[in-house]
Structures are given as C-alpha cells and as structure tokens.
C-alpha cells in the first residue's frame, strides 16, 4: 500500500509541476524582437560575433562549441536576468538548441519560456537587423 501511495504521490507532483510550467513555441520574427520581453541568446560567442545579436538581448551560452554544457553555470547567469515566474524568450541559430533547453526549463524547472522557432537566422531572413556583439 505504501508503494502505491508513493507512486501516486510522485505522479501527482510531476503532473502539478508540468501544469504550472508554461512553454510557448513562437516563430522568430522582427515583430517579436520589438516586444517588451527579455530575450536570452544561448549561442556561442563565435556565433554572436558572426551574425550579431538581438538588440537588448542577454548572451548566456548553454552549449559550447563541442556540445558540452554546464547547467549550474547557465542557471546562475539566467537567474541574474529573469525571475522564475517572468516570461522570457530563448533564441539560438535555428531553434533546435532552444527547443531542448526551453523544454528543460519549462517542464523540469517550471519557468515561463518562449522558444523562438527558426532562431536568429529566421529573424535575419525576414529583415531583422542585429546589433554587433561587443
């Protein structure tokens, strides 16, 4: 009986956590870049230099050039920029990395995340002008 109760309790906690999480998938467009929402660019410094960045965005690398990551370091930097209950957007080159990271942040940690599908490349293709990364 204890094992069944424990399993039901854990399942209900996981369900409650996923219900509280908010994840949106939105196309990366010049119009979105003008919204009053924080944008976190999770690409690498080389990528920031190559294409530029969204004006006013926060550059917090998640994956390095070899695909390695340091969740603790990323979370420390992210929590200096956004509050857990504050909606924010993630952007990368084409949207594949932000897809993974936004799922993790939303479903596992309960953040309110907007995944910018198509990434910086889609926004640039649609006419968005980036600013130079310092």
TrEMBL record:
InterPro entries: Rhodanese-like_dom (IPR001763), Rhodanese-like_dom_sf (IPR036873). Gene3D superfamilies: Rhodanese-like domain. Residues 1-21 form the signal peptide. Keywords: Signal. Residues 33-132 form the Rhodanese domain. This is Rhodanese-like domain-containing protein. It comes from uncultured Sulfurovum sp.
């Amino acid at each position: 009986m204890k094992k069944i109760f424990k399993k039901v309790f854990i399942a209900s906690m996981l369900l409650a956590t996923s219900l509280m999480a908010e994840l949106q998938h939105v196309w990366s467009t010049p119009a979105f870049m003008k919204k009053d929402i924080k944008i976190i660019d999770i690409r690498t410094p080389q990528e920031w230099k190559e294409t530029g960045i969204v004006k006013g965005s926060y550059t917090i690398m998640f994956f390095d050039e070899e695909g390695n990551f340091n969740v603790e370091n990323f979370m420390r930097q992210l929590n200096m920029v956004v509050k857990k209950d504050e909606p924010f957007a993630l952007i990368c080159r084409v949207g594949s990395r932000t897809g993974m990271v936004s799922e993790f942040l939303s479903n596992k940690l309960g953040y309110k995340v907007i995944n910018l599908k198509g990434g910086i490349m889609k926004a640039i293709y649609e006419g968005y002008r980036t600013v130079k990364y310092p």
